[in-house]
Queue: 2 jobs
Job 1
Amino acid sequence: MSLLEVKDLRTSFFTDAGEVRAVNGVSFNLDHGKVLGIVGESGSGKSVTAYSIMQILASTGKIVGGSIKLDGQELVGAGEQVMKTVRGNKVSIIFQDPMTSLNPVYTIGHQLMEAITLHTNRNKQQAKERAIEMLRLVNINEPEKRMKQYPFEFSGGMRQRIMIAMALACEPDILIADEPTTALDVTIQAQILELMKSLQDELGMAIIMITHDLGVVAQMCDEVIVMYAGSICEQGTADEIFYNPRHEYTKGLMRSIPSTATAGKKLQPITGTPIDLLNMPKGCPFAPRCDAAMKICLRERCERMVINEEHQAACWMNVKLGVEDGSIVLDEKGGDAE
Amino acid sequence: MSENKNQPLLEVKDLKQHFNINMGMFKTKPLKAVDGVSFTINKGETLGLVGESGCGKTTVGRTILHLYKPTSGEVWYNGKLLKTKEDIHEFRKHATMVFQDPYSSLNPRMTVADIIGEPLDVHKLYSSQAERRERILELMSHVGLNSEHASRYAHEFSGGQRQRIGIARALAVNPDFIVCDEPVSALDVSIQAQVINMFDELQDKLGLTYLFIAHDLLVVRHISDRIAVMYLGKMVELADAAEIYDHPLHPYSKSLLSAVPVPDPKIARANQRIMLQGDIPSPLNAPSGCPFRTRCPYATEQCAAEMPEFKEVSAGHFVACHRVGEVN
């Protein structure tokens, strides 16, 4: 049994304009001590997936189907009392913007100790010791003095360190990091990623790393999920995804990243604009932007196919390339290339 | 790439931009956002300007265009020093800017046609309404927008399309030189590539010269001919794009480049990052001497005492470091 089992998760937002299916049938497992990367562009549903696990969705959002099992315990429909024991204790989250995630009118010490006393049986003195220990763990100098300072007295990188300290104070099994370094400069980003990696080695928690930056994924993740328009396109080990991409969207993403090799040449962007979640096409959500789209792509959504034991992808191209799971025969569907 | 590539279009000499920050009780303190920067940009080339937040790269771009009045220093355009108001007004027909945030840099109450047409109005670049309209449609087709978009408002467009509107506006006066201030950093990867290609195509088609300011080093490497690195208001290194990537000389450039996450798991795992300790000091309390010395693993007493000279160490490769010979 995996630590976290997400199965066919569906989360929708009910807006005036209609139902927005932000997460539309997402399934994955996460094991102890692994780093799972979720990549995708804005609106792909990567953050909503994480917020659904924590059940911290905005008031218009609702999990409309599927199951989330943490250590075998079902979380969908489990109620707020259960979730309170999950959040912070078993699953913690850090957000993109360390500037707004801390309360400006309380000291760092107060905020750290609040999290600790709320989730554990420690008294105030023990909580204080634990908070100082956590600050030391994330390499904040003079933690005793820093405890009495307010968020504005810290730089962006240090605030993100404090968020990490807070998230890890109760030794969660899973740390969800929602674009943890996007707001930071590149040398500070390197420090934070290094810190997360070493803490993971030390404490052994699993990490869900949500990011749009494939460079961060390559550096941090064991496994990768690529999302587009609320669904998983492709999932596999980092090496498989980077060196053997099997979904046209993933391939397009890789091609559109500038690098030393592309200098002086044209990039190969993905054409068109991201999909409107209110008007989802019938077939593959990526088909309208896909250069390799076939007739079948516009008509029918591709189920996930097993490429190998470390790799799954939901792309009809794989059928064309001869990866058959037995149930699909290309000719009958008339799915020849156009 | 034109044949007069080695002719300087823009020369910046010892440019300084100090902002007076109110410290309370009628006291002010100068914030040295840009502190003595010199460089040239040749015709038809792209100079990339990189650095972390607060290093002054955006201020350099804005000060060149005289959106801020320079504290001191000179900007020469096409061999002519910009001095008077008239010089600057004339200069702005040749030099424009594309801004970072495609959401806040377009007026929500103006139609796309009016946004793109405004520079034409300001500089009186048309003789009839028909000519104005024709020019606007031409500009829109340059950046891949349809004529039916002309009467719409900015909020009806996605981020990538808004950035296209911003670029069309920058092209309206038929400029030779464009300051691109983080033009793609607010965009998704797939859209970013479209816009970068457009910058490339426009440069070829219209013979443009760019100052390309960005913090994403992969993007800058892709688009630039030469790259300049800034740290705390000072330029620390300037060289050919390939040269600075393959042989960075300044310790800051080295660690900056090694910190870039490479989208390739095998390289990323093998990569030896040069970790910098601590954060960038506040520009209000910049260290004495070399600004980087507080985080530099090679700093000596000399580095604290005096600012190293920005000098040419090999053809076209400029570095400001006392110990450049010893640490490389």
Note: The mean pLDDT of chain A is 89.
Job 2
Amino acid sequence: MINTKAIPDFSVSPHVDQVGIEERASRFTKRSIKNETKLNGLLLALNMIDLTTLEGKDTDGKVKQLCYKARHLHDAYPGLPTVAAVCVYPSMVKVAKTALGDSGIKVAAVATAFPSGQAPRDVKIRDTKFAIDQGADEIDMVISRGKFHMGEYDFVFDEIAAIKEACGDARLKVILETGELVTYDKVRKASDIAMYAGADFIKTSTGKISPAATMPVTLVMLEAIRDFYYKTGKRIAMKPAGGISKAKLALHYLVMLNEVLGEEWMNNQWFRFGASSLANDILMQLMKQKTGLYQSPDYFSLD
Amino acid sequence: MAVKKNNTIKLKFDSARNLAPAPESKSAAKINPRYDLFINGKFEKPQSKKYFSTINPATEEKLSEVAEAGQQDVNNAVKAARVAYDKTWKKMPGKERAKYIYRIARMIQERAREFSVIETLDGGKPIRESRDFDVPTAANHFFYYAGWADKLEYAFPNRNTLPLGVAGQIIPWNFPLLMAAWKIAPALATGNTVVLKPAETTPLTAMKLAEIIQEADLPPGVVNIITGAGATGAAIVNHPDINKIAFTGSTDVGKIIQRAIAGTNKKATLELGGKAANIIFDDAPIDQAVEGVINGIFFNQGHVCCAGSRLYVQESVFKTVVQKLKDRMETLIVGDPLDKNTDIGAINSRAQLDVINNYLKIGLKEGAEMYQASCSIPGKGFFVRPTIFTNVAQSNRIAQEEIFGPVLAIQSFRTDDEVIEKANNTPFGLSAGVWTDKGSKIFNMTTKLRAGVVWANTFNKFDPTSPFGGYKESGYGREGGLHGLSAYVNVV
């Protein structure tokens, strides 16, 4: 546990220069990723995916199909890794847990009145505990953006700490919903609050608000993780979510991760992509690398 | 676990540096085995009958050989320029001159890839920089000044302008094509003719530009490009029929030129050395400031006259900045300039490499603490690791003299007044950088720093519309923007 005296004054979180951060983020996209670096990057990206379905119309059948996909991404390519986790609503955790069996793929549940977070704290805690009871390995919570905008940082901090407590051994991902925070300064502040309050992951977005993850926003959060690591020696994981549907973009994110936090973060313990359609695009690129030819999307299963 | 050095947590970046090779193809670049002098619209063999080699500093292989212009060749070039000035160029309406300049700009754009590859082969700079900075900015300069050619009456309202005549232009090796553009574009726009000499280590893109000028059908003699070393430059400077000298290069040569033209009615603009202060206050956006420091000193291997080679950091954030700087340096990729992932390419020449290595020794001898990125560097060619010095004092030579390489001297400061005094305590005054979140502090600094360019929360940003030039021993006159026109006209 962190000594409370070590918790910084969040009203003075470091500033972020908008022009500078966007310029730096675009620099990563200039890296030319080829041959074995590309292949390794694609396989790694695949292994970092939290395959996600978060819809009102989700059913047991849909979740089972998604779980099968998670285990068998593309059997025409032997030796592929699996995705890191399947991400569902708490009511679907049990179905997913059963379907994934002993595959080692984690089940992540979005809790705390996802996606708005507009519910009393006890409801959020019960929501979290329900997901844990159902067998969730990871909890994706949302912060109270309204309270954050009102400047009630203590409220936001305490709420994250309370959910962390309810999580027990499950790893906690804290969704900042950066599309609703808008400025980089606020993203930085929310990142600091989440990490000091006990987040295991900080995550950009719910996927329900546009813009979702962007490279500059992710860079702000990675820099916050780096500063936290410099100060405490404790590693925090990162999950950009929403809007990353192309393999090339995923590789740009990995270049960024590799150059900001280094190789110790380059695995699915410390980095995830929250995405649903990214997997198939990566599979398509992998088959292209293997066979030299692009195949039609019809050759890749849609689940 | 993280590697701990001096109780500081370090991140690991080996895999970030070891990417699969991504070399740019050389096939776009057609380099002749030999280049003659471009005089009066034609490529002519030198009267001197002499040629010298130009090499690729990354491999030390010969790329081509170029003519060495002697006194007679310089006379011919100046004569061609004078005839072209009197007979065609000074009488041509501005909007007609503009057409030629636009044409040159467009042709540079069309052949951007070829220019980038040759610039990188001949000079050693990373292809990413020649592709994304040098060549597009050079084209932009021609576009920008083409626009002014028929609008000089608006640039100087209610006044008449007359061109000066023949301009002798001598340019350095750090941005060969871009410097040629900086010099040629405003001269042509204002109705002058040109004799230009590129640096002896990087003549190839200037000769390519000569090819474009020929193809663009510019009237013969309006632009003459002759190659050679110091003696050729001296012959241009001392030629009696030259009306204007535009020089970019070292302060030493700048002083020689100034002595040479004393007592003549030659006009001059000199853009000389620098030792820019980059200043980080404790309220700065630190990560972006660190990035600005990296860009400020390691851009183009530090071969930049306005490089941010002195870093001043407020003491309360000194440790953080140095820690972040060191980690950031570990991610820099040093090596083959033609590889698209290379951040730092080859030092331009063996002579310059010796200068830099000598300063590293001086720094160590002066008691400064040296830190170099742990990357490996190629065995062949001219390379040096990105280097920073801490524990530096204002009285150290590494903090006073221009090194012109990827070497940064870092000092701390306590108050605004102290840092202004230290930043100004140099014979140079080309550029400076200020990093703070506070607008009022920026304006306070910019009014007190004696430097021609002051960047706030950014560094090494260039634009054709923005004037550039120095204070004190960094030279005089401005290039770029509206101010760049005044250097080539008599206002009557």
Note: Chain B is about 40% helix and 20% strand.
